[in-house]
Specification:
Blueprint: H1 11-23, H2 28-34, H3 40-44, E1 47-48, E2 56-57, H4 75-106, H5 117-126, H6 136-152, H7 166-175, H8 182-192, H9 201-231, E3 237-241, E4 251-256, H10 260-270, H11 273-281, E5 287-292, H12 293-303, E6 307-309, H13 314-319, E7 323-328, H14 336-341, E8 347-350, E9 361-362, H15 370-383, E10 399-403, H16 407-415, H17 429-437, E11 442-446, H18 458-468, E12 472-477, H19 478-486, H20 500-509, E13 514-518, H21 523-536, E14 546-550, H22 556-567, E15 571-574, H23 584-598, E16 601-604, H24 608-626
Parallel strand pairs: 4-5, 4-7, 5-6, 7-8, 8-9, 11-12, 11-14, 12-13, 14-15, 15-16
Antiparallel strand pairs: 1-2, 3-10
Helix pairs in contact: 4-6, 4-8, 4-9, 4-22, 5-6, 5-9, 6-9, 8-9, 9-21, 9-22, 10-15, 18-24
The protein binds iron/sulfur cluster (SF4) and Broken Fe4S4 cluster.
């Protein structure tokens, strides 16, 4: 791909970035520029600060500099330890999110608060919880207790590992990566990477895999499943996306972060007639809630709440001058928001004891008093409407798309073409048939963040378009999902980007060619879908003509996701190299040798066009091996 030097392919982002420049407001791109050149030791993973004798760094450019840390740790050890710690931090973030959802379910005392009772009873059955003679609230409590047990149970493997195909489970057991309790695996990474502990890079990565697995097959899956039980399993719906969803005449509330417990309560509170009336008294026409990052995905999928934008648009939303409050909980919240809100009337409201920001107003969210607190927060926003300063500048750009493809929604969609005489409904058969016949060549998950090392959104969108034209179906989550919906790839019109086969499938099933499967924790939905397809063909996930890509990733969570996907047998393409290039051994292990163990591996490719070529070649190779 020609790099045109643009910071973004998104018109709304370009417009507000220019505004920021004109007003002398510093954004993520300016700070990234000021940071150049970035530290080469850090970039390659060669700096160690694991003990008080350090920091130590390995010099790669000359043999004259240090070739080992003060304790003797080699580049392999230091790089592997740094990588493992990042993975553990990522797994911790996703898993702690899952824990909070489980706690929210545990405290439910009214059946009306359970939105998907069928899913609750299905999960109770899967986990061997007796339901006879128990009411819904009691079952919810027991399911929540079981989920909470996954974090600290003394014996046994993660319960959700059983959802994988048999061959995969066996492989995990044989290779010593079948994870036990979530907290235990994460603690073990911190322990084994402590000074003077594990020095064998392969063993460090093995432990990192165990921790990563507690994310995808543990905390994230708990987060997804229990959120569906509590707030409803997403089904397809139309949604508007991009900063143009903000409304000049309304009180605008942007909810940003990750956990749906807070955002669900804000959505309900913003509809409270008393507060709407109050907003009108302040001169507004009403209250408009929009979501950002993964919180945006959560409430869009369940309620059709407009999606304001992704990670690199959070600062820009405030620069519209139209946001009365930005309400945040955890993860992916730039501390710079507090500085930028000083230039506008926007109130930055933090709500989690895990994520306070100096300069923000802190109103702690408590699930037990969710509605009461949410009302208080919404009222703060409403009363701030009259404080707008200067001109409001909302870009016109917004697009429309169909989102909300949970696994259940996909199966329901597939049922439309299932021949019910020959085959029962509720299976992935139509999807497998389309892949086998070659109408669909395969499927790719495009996930992850934005990163200044890549032009904003451009890599997500270019990669998706390149895959669509090769008849490869795309599923997406997180900020990748925002990029795709903004670019119109979740509309029927996007069929124009597809090859003939994919266009026919989309028409037949009445789906867009890029399926929105949710937030970052919802990558667990993709794991279950892959498992179902692999089980259906009697094989393993690593047999499937599929891949994953994170072309603009930046967070530690993305590293955990990448590693559990690889350990699950998936080819994972990263658009930005992780900090492992300082050790040839570690880099070669992760990008080559690991494939002979798990059937999945990492690929690094920053150019999305070349990335699509590599992914397509991988998919064709898998097809050949399957004999299709
Ligand atoms: Fe240096 Fe070893 Fe301490 Fe790391 S653990 S800072 S390499 S002495
Ligand atoms: S929000 S982890 S920037 S995808 Fe999940 Fe986006 Fe990445 Fe955060």
């Amino acid at each position: 791909m020609e790099n045109c030097g643009c910071i973004t392919c998104d018109a709304a982002t370009k417009e507000l970035y220019e505004k920021a420049k004109n007003e002398g407001i510093e954004t993520v791109w300016d700070r990234a520029r000021a940071m150049q050149p970035q530290c080469g030791f850090g970039e390659m993973g060669l700096c160690c600060t694991n003990c008080g004798m350090g920091p130590c760094r390995i010099v790669k450019v000359s043999k004259d500099g240090p070739q080992a840390g003060i304790c003797g740790a080699t580049e392999d050890t230091i790089v592997a330890r740094n990588f493992a710690r990042s993975v553990a931090a990522g797994a911790a973030a996703h898993s702690d999110h899952g824990r909070d959802i489980a706690l929210a379910l545990y405290h439910v005392d009214d059946k009306a608060r359970i939105k998907d009772e069928e899913k609750l009873f299905k999960l109770a059955d899967e986990w061997g919880i007796t339901v006879e003679g128990k009411d819904t609230v009691q079952v919810a409590k027991e399911v929540a207790e079981k989920a909470l047990g996954e974090f600290g149970k003394v014996f046994g493997n993660l319960l959700f590992l059983k959802r994988a195909p048999e061959k995969r489970i066996k492989l995990w057991e044989e290779t010593g990566v079948a994870s036990e309790a979530i907290d235990k695996e994460i603690v073990r990474v911190l322990h084994s990477t402590h000074m003077g502990c594990d020095a064998d890079y392969r063993n460090i990565i093995r432990q990192a895999i165990r921790a990563a697995m507690t994310d995808g097959w543990g905390g994230s899956m708990i987060g997804t499943e229990l959120s569906d039980i509590l707030f409803g399993t997403p089904m397809p719906k139309k949604v508007e996306a991009n900063l143009g969803v903000l409304k000049k005449e309304y009180v605008n509330i942007v909810v940003h972060g990750h956990e749906p417990t807070l955002s669900e309560a804000i959505v309900v509170a913003a509809r409270d007639p008393e507060l709407v009336e109050l907003a009108k008294k302040q001169g507004a026409e009403g209250i408009n809630v929009a979501g950002m990052c993964c919180t945006g995905n959560e409430i869009a999928m369940r309620h059709g709440i407009p999606m304001a934008g992704n990670f690199f648009q959070q600062e820009l939303a405030i620069m519209t001058g139209a946001v009365e409050a930005m309400i945040v909980d955890v993860q992916c919240i730039m501390p710079s928001l507090a500085t930028i809100t000083k230039c506008y009337h926007t109130k930055l409201i933090t709500t989690s004891p895990k994520a306070k920001i100096p300069g923000a107003t802190h109103i702690e969210f408590d699930e037990q008093k969710s509605f009461e607190i949410a009302k208080r927060i919404v009222k703060e926003a409403v009363m701030n409407f009259k404080n707008r300063k200067g001109e409001v500048h909302i870009p016109d750009e917004k697009s429309e798309g169909r989102i909300g493809y949970s696994l259940e929604a996909i199966i329901k969609t597939l049922d439309r073409v299932t021949n019910t005489h020959a085959h029962p409904s509720g299976t992935v058969k139509p999807l497998v048939d389309a892949i086998k016949s070659g109408v669909l060549r395969g499927a790719v998950a495009i996930v992850g963040c934005n990163n200044h090392k890549q032009p904003h959104d451009s890599c997500h969108v270019t990669l998706a378009k390149e895959l669509l034209k090769r008849d490869i179906l795309v599923v997406t989550t997180g900020c990748g999902a925002h990029a795709c919906v903004k670019a119109g790839l979740m509309s029927d019109d996007a069929r124009k980007y597809c090859g003939k086969g994919l266009a026919t499938v989309c028409e037949l099933l009445d789906i867009p060619p890029v399926l929105h499967m949710g937030s970052c924790v919802d990558i667990s939905r993709i794991l279950v879908l892959l498992s179902e397809v692999a089980k259906y063909i009697g094989g393993d996930i690593s047999d499937l003509p599929v891949a994953a890509a994170a072309p603009e990733w930046m967070s530690e969570k993305a590293q955990a996701i990448g590693l559990y996907a690889v350990a699950s047998g998936v080819y994972v393409l990263l658009g930005v190299a992780p900090a492992v290039t300082g050790s040839e051994n570690v880099a070669t292990y992760l990008t080559k040798d690991i494939e002979s163990v798990f059937g999945g591996r990492f690929e690094i490719e920053s150019d999305p066009v070349k990335a699509a070529e590599k992914i397509a070649a991988h998919i064709e190779n898998k097809r050949k091996r399957l004999g299709i």
